[in-house]
Amino acid sequence: METKHIALATVLFAAPVLAEPVRVYFGMQAGAGIHVAELDDETGELSAPRLAVKTKNAGFIAIHPNRRFLYSTGVEAFRINADGSLTSMGSVDSGGKGCCHVGIDATGQCLMAANYGSGGVASFRILEDGSLSEARSIHAHEGSGAHPVRQTQPHAHSIVPNPANTFAYAPDLGIDKVVVYTLDPAAGVLEPSGAAVVPGGAMGPRHMKWSTDGRIAYVLNELDLGVSLFRPGPAAGSLEFIRTVSVLPACADKENMTSAEIRIHPGGRFIYASTRDLSGQGRDSISVFSCFEDGFRLLETVPAQTRVPRNFNIDPSGKWMLVGGQKSGDVAIFRIDPATGHPEFTGRKVAIPGGPICIEFLANP
């Protein structure tokens, strides 16, 4: 009898542990709310997205480091429930017009917002229950750029902290600058600390990512279709320009094309950027780069398999890429080759009515 118990226990303990699927949230176009789905990171299967919460202005979203709260460009706070649904904890004024991006500092104490319409940024204290204070700081950008239509005034397009969590950086499409702020997370306050010019004219800096070691910042330019590399400068928080690399091959037709999102692979070896075909000719693409300063170069460009890929993301395992089609109302699933970084379309798409414009993973603890 004792032998049987031991044998049974051996079988039980030897049974494989099934990995939990990774939850993924989709910020949608105005009026379509926020959706949620689950990704099987072994097979790449994505469940049918379902409504997580109704909200008028979801847009871009950001997940708190503690995985308990989510924030949207409505400057609205949500509690993340066990079933994936979201419960609103209220919203506050964005401190400007046309909020298009939100970011959270590494400690989870400060929410930052970029206001595209009014051309500036604001910051908010994240309270202990996850809700938001009123704006603790509001800053307006100044200037214009060379583009006669898109750069007549400032258009702050995103805001991100550096890896040290000491400064925040706001690429401004309208003035061809990355505006720099000192960051006080505990107070939820930003203070101006200069700006770095993205040289070339009519570049349109949109989104920005830092290498994990903080040595290189990658700025994606919407108008010029390029990635501009910067390194930290001699003054605290400052940036020094290195060079700009095109997201498309030299022979590509760039008419009516704009860049949208930039992501760094979790393994740190590759960078990806999406490009939108605003003319509807099916030229929407994902570009792949090596991401070493001494060898940063475009490796390839592949079809995005969606219409207007305003956003995409890579799951925490680094094996899968989800590309959202703002106009096609779907998500295309790619498998990433770990050796080459090549994203191979799996042939699978999942419908998501309303059109996703932001994709964020809730990484397992």
Distance between the termini: 40 Å
Give the mean pLDDT.
94
**Residue fraction in strands:** over 45%
Could you name the ranges where pLDDT drops below 50 across 5 or more consecutive residues? Answer: 1-15
Strand-helix topology:
Elements (H helix, E strand, L loop, with lengths): L1 H13 L7 E7 L5 E6 L10 E4 L7 E3 L5 E4 L3 E5 L5 E6 L7 E6 L5 E6 L4 E7 L5 E9 L19 E2 L5 E6 L4 E8 L4 E9 L7 E6 L6 E5 L4 E7 L6 E8 L10 E8 L5 E8 L7 E6 L6 E7 L7 E4 L5 E6 L4 E7 L6 E9 L4 E7 L3
Antiparallel strand pairs: 1-2, 1-28, 2-3, 4-5, 5-6, 6-7, 8-9, 9-10, 10-11, 12-13, 13-14, 14-15, 16-17, 17-18, 18-19, 20-21, 21-22, 22-23, 24-25, 25-26, 26-27
Structural overview:
The chain is mainly beta and 365 residues long. The protein has a domain at 92-246: Methylamine Dehydrogenase, Chain H. 4% of the residues lie in helices and 48% in strands. The protein is built from one helix and 28 strands. The protein has one helix at residues 2-14; strands at 22-28, 34-39, 50-53, 61-63, 69-72, 76-80, 86-91, 99-104, 110-115, 120-126, 132-140, 160-161, 167-172, 177-184, 189-197, 205-210, 217-221, 226-232, 239-246, 257-264, 270-277, 285-290, 297-303, 311-314, 320-325, 330-336, 343-351, 356-362. The protein has a four-stranded antiparallel β-sheet with strand order 3-2-1-28, with no helix packed on it. A hairpin with a 4-residue loop joins strand 13 and strand 14. The longest helix is centred in the first third of the chain and has 13 residues, at 2-14.
